[in-house]
Specification:
Blueprint lengths: L4 E4 L2 H8 L4 E7 L5 E7 L1 E3 L2 E6 L2 H6 L4 E10 L4 E13 L6 H8 L12 E16 L9
Length: 143
């Protein structure tokens, strides 16, 4: 079996992959300095990640704070997949009346776990990084 390889992804590739998934994880730092990771369903609008939440931790720590958002898909049988990380600042758009916030809240976010998600956050000023994990084809052998 060949050794797996990692390939860096461009921002455009990261955005395309983010549009194929439905849920990810948001990381924030709590008031006592500890990391907290919360799974969320999300949508991508242009370069912005938007999600609704009922999480008290995200409500308290994401707005005006640094956040990281991560999505990955890995096939356990082939050992191939990808990982995308978005870093930025959280913005509370729950009651915002600007055109962009109204538009972003109007999108249907498919919920994995139905529960009240009355608080909307977008990740602004994002930076994207990603990797694709693949198993390279074996090199041809010549006799």
């Amino acid at each position: 079996m060949s050794d797996p390889s990692l390939e860096s992804l461009t921002e455009e590739e990261c955005l395309a992959l983010l549009n194929t998934a439905k849920y990810g994880r948001v990381a924030v730092v709590t008031g006592d300095g500890r990391p907290e990771i919360v799974p969320v369903n999300y949508i991508v609008h242009d370069r912005t990640i938007v999600f609704g939440t009922g999480s008290a931790v995200l409500k308290a720590r994401a707005p005006l704070g640094h956040v990281a958002f991560e999505v990955d898909i890995v096939d356990p049988s082939s050992h191939e997949g990808w990982d995308v990380v978005v870093r930025g600042e959280g913005a509370d758009i729950t009651d915002a009346v600007d055109r962009l916030s109204l538009l972003e809240r109007s999108y249907h976010v498919e919920e994995w776990v139905p529960r009240k998600k009355d608080y909307w956050i977008s990740i602004v000023n994002p930076s994207f990084s990603g990797r694709r994990l693949f198993v390279p084809a074996p090199a041809p052998t010549f006799y």
